[in-house]
Design a protein that fits this description.
39% helix, 5 strands, alpha+beta, 224 residues, five-stranded mixed beta sheet
Length: 224
């Protein structure tokens, strides 16, 4: 029996989430599952994608996909789709990202975010993953909210950090009012995220709230 990604509940369907919140909100496995389109023999395309990425995205990208048989009956077409996707990514990456300097203060992270989000008309929540040397590994938007609110779970943030093998994470979101003053909900969520991160060994370094021209660091405020 072939399992399809369409068999997933709508709110867990990567295609639905992509069009609702944008491709940056999907995990690597979810993006790859859309490339694969269907699963095979008792596995959804998301299950198959997770197997392919078990050693990480970089490892999968380096694999010789002409040896597709290592994934059993995955098939030539699926292997070709994966190979083509990685090749497009390589061609799009004109230059390699230089090794970043360690993040030393909130200002260095917040200023580029202010430029990116100061004119956003919806609240956007994202995370920046850091390695053990406090260098940026990746950055991703995890949720796009309504005009004045965003709903995100601690699970979404920590799942992303785990997928990126991050040692720590900085989260951020914008206030469309332009006033970065934290709400009670911001403080409650931050506390929950810090506590959940401790259980998984992932440090929540800071939560940055972005206004139009300024920001607030909850770490500097003593909330972390």
């Amino acid at each position: 029996m072939i399992f399809r990604i369409a068999d997933l509940p709508e709110d867990e369907h990567p295609l639905h989430r992509l069009f609702s919140h944008g491709p940056t909100t999907l995990s690597d496995a979810e993006l790859l599952s859309l490339v694969l389109a269907t699963g095979t023999h008792g596995k959804t395309s998301l299950d198959l994608a997770r197997e392919i990425l078990v050693h990480g995205l970089e490892s999968a990208a380096r694999r010789d996909w002409t040896t597709y048989r290592q994934f059993g009956d995955m098939g030539r077409v699926k292997a070709a789709r994966v190979a083509a996707s990685f090749e497009l990514g390589r061609r799009a990456a004109i230059t390699r990202r230089p090794t970043s300097e360690p993040v030393r203060d909130a200002e260095a992270v917040a200023r580029p975010l202010l430029s990116q989000y100061r004119h956003a008309t919806q609240e956007r929540f994202g995370a920046i993953c850091l390695d053990a040397k406090n260098r940026v590994v990746s950055q991703r938007e995890l949720y796009v909210g309504t005009l004045n609110s965003a709903t995100i779970s601690t699970r979404d943030v920590l799942r992303y950090a785990l997928d990126e093998h991050a040692a720590s994470v900085i989260v951020f979101h914008n206030h469309t009012s332009g006033d970065p003053t934290p709400s009670p909900e911001d403080l409650i969520f931050t506390r929950k995220l810090v506590d959940a991160g401790k259980l998984l060994g992932i440090e929540v370094v800071d939560h940055l709230i972005l206004g139009v021209d300024n920001f607030i660091s909850l770490k500097q405020r003593g909330a972390i």
